[in-house]
Records
---
Amino acid sequence: MVNMQKIAALAGVSIATVSRALNKSGPVKEATRARILQLAGEYQYTPNPIARSLSTQKTDTIGLILPEMADEFFMDIIRGIDEEAYRANRFLLVSSFHTQRDIAATLLEFMSSGRVDGVILMAPEGKNGLVETLRRSRRPLVLLNPPGNAQEFVYFKINNFQGAYAIVEHLFGHGYHRIGMITGPNGNIDADERLNGCLEAGRQHDLPIAPSFIMPGDFSARSGYYAFMRLMSQMEKPEAVFAANDMMAMGAYQAARSLNLRIPQDIALAGFDDIFLSQLLTPRLTTVHVPIVELGSKAVRYLLQMINGEVDPSAPYHEELTAGLVIGGSCGCESVAAAVPL
Amino acid sequence: MVNMQKIAALAGVSIATVSRALNKSGPVKEATRARILQLAGEYQYTPNPIARSLSTQKTDTIGLILPEMADEFFMDIIRGIDEEAYRANRFLLVSSFHTQRDIAATLLEFMSSGRVDGVILMAPEGKNGLVETLRRSRRPLVLLNPPGNAQEFVYFKINNFQGAYAIVEHLFGHGYHRIGMITGPNGNIDADERLNGCLEAGRQHDLPIAPSFIMPGDFSARSGYYAFMRLMSQMEKPEAVFAANDMMAMGAYQAARSLNLRIPQDIALAGFDDIFLSQLLTPRLTTVHVPIVELGSKAVRYLLQMINGEVDPSAPYHEELTAGLVIGGSCGCESVAAAVPL
DNA sequence: ATGAAAGCGCTAACAT
DNA sequence: ATGTTAGCGCTTTCAT
């Protein structure tokens, strides 16, 4: 193991000088620095980040805690976060996907242990006294799509309400009067907001959504399938169905096929998320695009500002990213999008 | 910051005793230990892993380096690895997804810096002297689906050849004589092996695949779309098409639809990977299941053995996981699977 | 411009 | 059973 000690000996200087030369953290005679750099290269010296961390109390690492559910959506958010972290020369310590795992424990372990400089936490379901746990956090923390009771923290979120409102309004624009919705899991903030956006759109257009047209789902394609089945097995059937995410919409496609219902002629369909696969459906799914990669980048950038003290880490800060409509053929629009394959 | 020093003072013992009590690394009188544990809980003491790492030269962290391409497939592999790492109380330092990033640099940074105890590297395309770089690695390293010139290392891989052979054989079993293939990117080991498996199956059945029926793709749905289009625009058309991964098969579904070709009546289709979405296609895609979660778990378990010195870290070790067929309706089989929705 | 030395928080001999 | 002490490799005052 080649360490500073060795380089220092080789260069005939003290380790302090080596440190200064390498970090440009103090004056070093040009000749000395050149010699040190030369030696460092020659012996493939790499500073030990552990030792540095112990000394500086910084790790150049950010923690990322994701919920158990892991679909394509999460791949994108990791991507956004990873790219931004890389750009900033930070490492990413990931923890995720465990049903059985207690988010709180993970978080606190990350936080109090000095393993990371800050944490990005995606926890759309603020159960088990999550907020109390977060309060005990001693390091910068950024929430992603947080539960409603997290106002005191820093968070970035998708404007689900607005997105859902917009897409339901679009469905009304097609002249559908009876709109059904397949909801996400109760208590999930994204799911709840999307439901509210839908309901509000109904109220604003004097066509309130009938309670029997609100069918519970859990964000899985399977649940979308069955929810759609149940919606269509009622005496009075909806003319259009809004699924709270694309996965459930895909389940609904399946169900529509097995019922021999044509989309959109017999039943219009819309989703939420704009996952890659919604493009592959025929007709292309009308959905709401969530700028998920951007969400991740913004979270990282803000977190780094908190870490660097450029913003007050204890001050709440909230940002909502607008979700835009993606019009496919499933809502009844002439499907322009489908003309351009993939 | 509450550290050992403080707990020791509070308990009226030395920090050595605290360390022993907490780590059960030496004898401590029961009463003393109880007092220390009590105090630690009270003051919410968490040992500083950085300091511990510096002292023990272990980090309890595994590095994970993934290629840029990030589809659902990778989500699964991260899941497998993450779960296993969690089970073993290890952390995961992830680095991934950057086109521009030099894998070698990342690897060496991980390795030589003491940030991780070992690395799992997924690099199906051994370009740019990858092997030479790997040789310089000073820590345990496990490869996933490695390039062909990596025999000297430890790796776990999917048996792509066998999987491709089996599925093409299955297509022959349906009586198709003209089989087309959409390949993956050249130089990618998975892609190459799948191609070879397909070709070999053709030879063994005295129905060699015609060169004009081998259409290049790049694993993206888009490339699958166009490759399929080109395959079907030839004078002589294949009766069945094997896409080297499910994503391209999905593109082929799209293309088939826009050509008004029914699957499987007009054209049979098969893929590889068994990604979640292949279940959602109608008819369900016939594909090859790759035990990807298992691949990740095995890699972690073996890596930990290397780290713990339970196996020789410098000895090559290879394991190939068998890929099994998943029969859907797209190949012409009566689609049993489709009866059970999703 | 450079060096000496004191930590950072913890582990692990070694001593008692 | 417990304490003392020497590191782990680096950063950072404070001298010189």
---
Amino acid sequence: MHEYNPLEIEPKWQAAWAEAGIDAVDAVIGDTADSLAAKSTYYALEMFPYPSGDVHMGHVRNYTIGDVISRYKRMQGFNVLHPIGWDSFGLPAENAAIKQNSTPANWTYANIDKQRASLKRLGFSYDWSRAVITSDVDYYHWGQWIFLKLWERNLVERRLSPVNWCPSCTTVLANEQVLGDGECWRCKSHVERKELEQWYFKITDYAQELLDDLDTLDGWPERVKQMQANWIGRSTGAEVDFVLCDASGEPTKETITVFTTRPDTLFGCSFFLLAPEHPLALEFVAGTEYEQDVRAVIAEAASATAVERSKGEREKHGAFTGRYVVNPINGEKVPVWIADYILMDYGTGAVMAVPSGDERDFAFARKYNLPIPPVIIASDDALFAELDGKRERVVNDVPWTEAYAGEGIMVQSGEFTGLAGGKDSAGSEAVIVSLEAQGAGKASINFRLRDWLISRQRYWGNPIPAIYCDACGIVPVPEADLPVVLPLDVDVAKGDKLAAHPEFYDVTCPACGKPAHRETDTMDTFTCSSWYYLRYADPHNAGVPFAREVANTWMPVDQYIGGIEHAILHLLYSRFFTKALRDAELLDFDEPFKNLLTQGMVKLNGETMSKSKGNVVAPEDMIALYGADALRVYILFMAPPDKDLEWSQSGIEGISRFLNRVWRAVFDLTGEVVVDSEGIKLSVYDETLDAAAVNERAAELNRELHRVIGKVVSDIERFNFNTAISAIMELLNTIAGYLKVPVAARDAELCNRAARSLVLLLAPMAPHFAEELWNEVLAGGVTGGAGGVAGGAAGGVGEGTAGGVTADDADNNNAFDSVHKQPWPEYDPAQAQAATVELAVQVNGKIKARITVAVDASESAIQEAALSEAAGAIGDKPVKKVVVVPGKLVSIVV
RNA sequence: GCCCGAGUGGCGGAAUGGCAGACGCGGAGGUCUCAAAAACCUUUGUCCACAAGACGUGUGGGUUCAACUCCCACCUCGGGCACCA
């Protein structure tokens, strides 16, 4: 036996696999074009890395999970696409370039080289021939092409809007890129609001479908779907048109529309609110006595930072504009105020205030002494009789001390009084019908989701293919002129930008030929990551981003794996892209990712590992100590994949020990007397075992083999890698018990099968380890060793066709018979059963005895045995009931 | 405030309503060794000197022959959203 030396065998097999092209989907060893076509496809995908530096433990975890799934599926006979690439545009490259006086490209590509080497060192089975790097012209060319397709489909728009501006990154951000407390997702600086003209993708056109199709994503975590649903934020209700009055208070022909989820409370509207940014606000008060107060509120609201706004219950400020509007439901004139809690970018920026039914309006009414007419009361409320039918308004001394926003009965609501009120209630519907009849409103749906702001005032990104012409306006770059190449001689370290490169932006208008100006903003990096999974399917296509039929073959992704932090960002954008590309007839499916696994973080001392905290455990250090396989197995073993895990150094030593034990056991199973490095014999036999004891151990091992293979299958299918590994450990423990049997008394077939199964089960998780054992000890049958266990007789379960050399071997020139080309071991649940089982006997819920019965014993026989065995505990108390749970226990109630 | 998760030994974690704590780490004792490391064996939820027994899955109730698991109420921690009309 040679020692298990991961540092020697891992690079060896990595080189051998690379040479044999074992992981490329279209060059799989032993597969012909026909056999490949006959296989089902399986697309396993992990979120590609940003090349920020070294590979860290989070990557190791993410990619190990994906690799296990890929290798397992290959052994199950699928043709597996398992690609990798880099999301390589983005701001960190610019910052690093400035810091190191380098260029973003140099920094990025150097990091990619470093990460590629690390990923290869970890033994991940990627099809490297398909690697996609988003900052390569060959890739971003097609990002521009897709941009033009979306533009053709009217999904691209340049418009003036309030935007989020990060002063530190000196660029605008999408809504999704502003964290809950108003911080930039990347640098955590406080985001400012600005009014700028920017490029948008009209993701809101798909708001309803993005929401509806969440229901079809059965393979997604509920949590992620919930987060997306909240983010999309659909509200149903009505649009109501209020008639504007002129400065003298006379109704005009103009109306102003509000959105409400509670049309049933329309009679309770006692004032009307505009957002401070609303264009009508200043128009109303210009030159009036109200102007000063209104301007003060506007100024105060504008200066409020995101932090202040996020503090929840904030003192509300407002001012009367001097104007009135007419409530269409009852013709009442109500005053128009501005209020700083009204958001310009939700609904219409104008709101009907119902202080009795809305906490915020209530607080505002109290503060400014506005009427609070009750219109909804709980059905059992005594006020009903008192209020019903009365039209007088109760002012500030209403019996209510707070707003009532729940469901109830409409009161003081004219013809609608007595109807059920609430969101989407009968009362709401009746009010909408009435409004529609008089042309003053309609049913409506509002989304919280905003369009996706995709332009960035940064250099290191995909150039937006648009040209500004004084004569023609904004003109798309013609498809034939693509790609718009990002110049590499921009020296960001010296503060250089695209906007300072005339050779980039001085162009002629494609429409009229006159001098024009190229767009110097680049696209959000999230546009690059919104379709990379499609490019993997057809990575070298030089005519289109991907061929439709090829995309249809591999997509949707069967299993996507990545961090929860993309629950809204990347995962929502990618869904949008897929739907938009489908409508552009470029592909034929609705959702990109059929199944999603969000893996937990790797922590140290309860904190996320980060360079700035200095608490990073470097994967390279662990590989140097224990090897890549031990690291892979350990990270799988520590916790279920979707939970955060706490790094512990001593645990990986345990896994290293486990692999060493397996190593020795495999040799021992061949009959070889295993010795340690100093020649001390480790194989120890128990010569006292008689034939019956040997047979019992053999039967136990056989049962355990069938049980564990079945367990590993079901655990891997559910991604419970930790329990799959536990089960393999249990198998090893049983094997260790059998290895006490002297070599001459062992069952050769059983030893062979046990060794092979052990190695095959570990192959997806510890690929080099398994490959070495397979090739050095097992391929071609177990033949080596002092005991001379004969190989080739492998029948039974263990391995379908794997009798050693596969039939395809002759057809190709690979020098080895890879364990990763073997079929997954089969198992027979019936053989996992022992002939007899021990049952616990409970008397009134307490275990009082144990009985051993045949596995197929009849219920009455079991009952009889249990009653006699537990007779002492039962005593003379009458037996009321007996429950027999086959294989488990007997419960006796006395 | 609203919406999700999660609370099990010293630690990581197991348990289609059916013997709680699998598997591993750590600890204790032992074998081997001059010694140590490695390896192997035994042991390891708590209480009790041992045994017998009792108690044990955040808390309190409930359903059930049987509850970590299901139901109700609550506590704690983590995450997301939050003036969205």
